[in-house]
Amino acid sequence: MNAPADGRLRQQADQLPFSNSFAALPPVFHTRLQPTPVPAPYLVGASANAAALIGLDADALARQEAVDAFSGNAILPGSEPLAAVYSGHQFGVWAGQLGDGRAILLGDVPARDPWPPARLELQLKGAGMTPYSRMGDGRAVLRSSIREYLCSEAMAALGIPTSRALCVTGSDMPVMRETVETAAIVTRMAPSFIRFGSFEHWFYNERNEELKLLADHVIDRFYPALRDEAQPYRALLSEVTRRTADLMAQWQAVGFMHGVMNTDNMSILGLTIDYGPFGFMEAFDARHICNHSDHQGRYSYQMQPRIGQWNCFALAQALLPLVGEVEDAQAAVESYKPTYDAKFNQLLHAKLGLLDTQPDDDKLFEAMFGLMQNNHVDFTLFFRQLGNLKLENPQADEPLRDLFIDRPAFDAWALQYRSRLRQENSRDEDRKARMHSVNPKYVLRNYLAQVAIEKAQNKDFSELARLLSILEKPFDEQPENEQYADLPPDWASTLEVSCSS
């Protein structure tokens, strides 16, 4: 083992002390299998921050032994690879059995500070076919793997609950999507990859014994305090509802759109998982659909909070045999909206630098979003620039005003905003520091990811590494990287992401 400057031991990949909590569930919950090797794998990128969470030496990830292990070409000692079964609603329609069609769970390892859970599961996404692949090939491509890798780490840096991405490995093996691409595997980490659809699977198959086993596993491993509740399964539903509502508020506040909020993509721990056709809002449009496959706009930006609630009701239906009474299940889920509203309100106050709450604040927020909608103002730039506003110097607003087509309309809103700030004797520098600590300067815009992807497709991984380092410090000024905070170029408007992304 290596001893870094912080005094903690860092281990090699083959020294990870695997346990296999999910594998201990009965065989009906999963299928044991080996990943399918890829030819000549190579390292595309590795996250030192994610590696530190499990005490792994990030530099060692470049060694061929680690590359082989995280490509599925070699099995790490103590791991018991498996693919889990689950079902789900996809675009609001019951899809029946799904499962890990291209993800293989290796097992779980001890976590280090600052991650709160005791253990983290490691999962290879794109490691080959499983019994749940249906018509798929079990593979992921370099393009989608890089997007998940970057966004997982970017969301973590933004303080939003998420799975993490340890590394991406690639291979020149061809994979057919819309065109021929090359294979890649992303190593994901989370306390658990159990999802709402994991419970739906047993409910719709009328397997209440397995439903209870799964619920007990989740409570005992992740929510042990709920075991002392009078109704632990209702308490589980209530806690998952609360976490989901909080997560939706955090997505909305940073302008993140998941793109595929199917129940099989919803974490039982309230994490952001399964990054596919995601996007960060640029020119603000509450109706924006980031997923080119979402023809009805079910998962648009403005629909995300409602779909989060819909998914919680789907989970409540699945847990009903354990909760017992319909009224109890409804009561647990009905906490969703007040929880979401309170969290989003709190986040909006922070984004605008407001220290207290006034009765008319909702009108100020509504007018702000209406103004952003009418002018299609860049979401990230608006909130970041708003932090530079000078209370007694409207002439300093020019960079902010320039984001608007209708500048007089902005001036009218800014007048209201300044009046509101004066009510609490707001101080410019203090407010700016607070606002810049919650309004990022750098987010993973699609065009930034695309530039890194195109270079990586030519075996140049320098831009991927640079972009990751920028996204790991989203609230810092980083003057040397100023161009990464600019408005997207014109060509970026042609980019589309779909379920194959």
TrEMBL record:
<keyword id="KW-0067">ATP-binding</keyword>
<comment type="similarity">
    <text>Belongs to the SELO family.</text>
</comment>
<keyword id="KW-0548">Nucleotidyltransferase</keyword>
<keyword id="KW-0464">Manganese</keyword>
<keyword id="KW-0808">Transferase</keyword>
<feature type="binding site">
    <location>
        <position position="102"/>
    </location>
    <ligand>
        <name>ATP</name>
    </ligand>
</feature>
<dbReference type="Pfam" id="PF02696">
    <property type="entry name" value="SelO"/>
</dbReference>
<feature type="binding site">
    <location>
        <position position="274"/>
    </location>
    <ligand>
        <name>ATP</name>
    </ligand>
</feature>
<feature type="binding site">
    <location>
        <position position="101"/>
    </location>
    <ligand>
        <name>ATP</name>
    </ligand>
</feature>
<keyword id="KW-0460">Magnesium</keyword>
<dbReference type="InterPro" id="IPR003846">
    <property type="entry name" value="SelO"/>
</dbReference>
<feature type="binding site">
    <location>
        <position position="138"/>
    </location>
    <ligand>
        <name>ATP</name>
    </ligand>
</feature>
<comment type="function">
    <text>Nucleotidyltransferase involved in the post-translational modification of proteins. It can catalyze the addition of adenosine monophosphate (AMP) or uridine monophosphate (UMP) to a protein, resulting in modifications known as AMPylation and UMPylation.</text>
</comment>
<feature type="binding site">
    <location>
        <position position="188"/>
    </location>
    <ligand>
        <name>ATP</name>
    </ligand>
</feature>
<feature type="binding site">
    <location>
        <position position="137"/>
    </location>
    <ligand>
        <name>ATP</name>
    </ligand>
</feature>
<feature type="binding site">
    <location>
        <position position="274"/>
    </location>
    <ligand>
        <name>Mg(2+)</name>
    </ligand>
</feature>
<feature type="binding site">
    <location>
        <position position="195"/>
    </location>
    <ligand>
        <name>ATP</name>
    </ligand>
</feature>
<feature type="binding site">
    <location>
        <position position="125"/>
    </location>
    <ligand>
        <name>ATP</name>
    </ligand>
</feature>
<feature type="binding site">
    <location>
        <position position="99"/>
    </location>
    <ligand>
        <name>ATP</name>
    </ligand>
</feature>
<keyword id="KW-0547">Nucleotide-binding</keyword>
<protein>
    <recommendedName>
        <fullName>Protein nucleotidyltransferase YdiU</fullName>
        <ecNumber>2.7.7.-</ecNumber>
        <ecNumber>2.7.7.108</ecNumber>
    </recommendedName>
</protein>
<feature type="active site" description="Proton acceptor">
    <location>
        <position position="264"/>
    </location>
</feature>
<feature type="binding site">
    <location>
        <position position="265"/>
    </location>
    <ligand>
        <name>Mg(2+)</name>
    </ligand>
</feature>
<keyword id="KW-0479">Metal-binding</keyword>
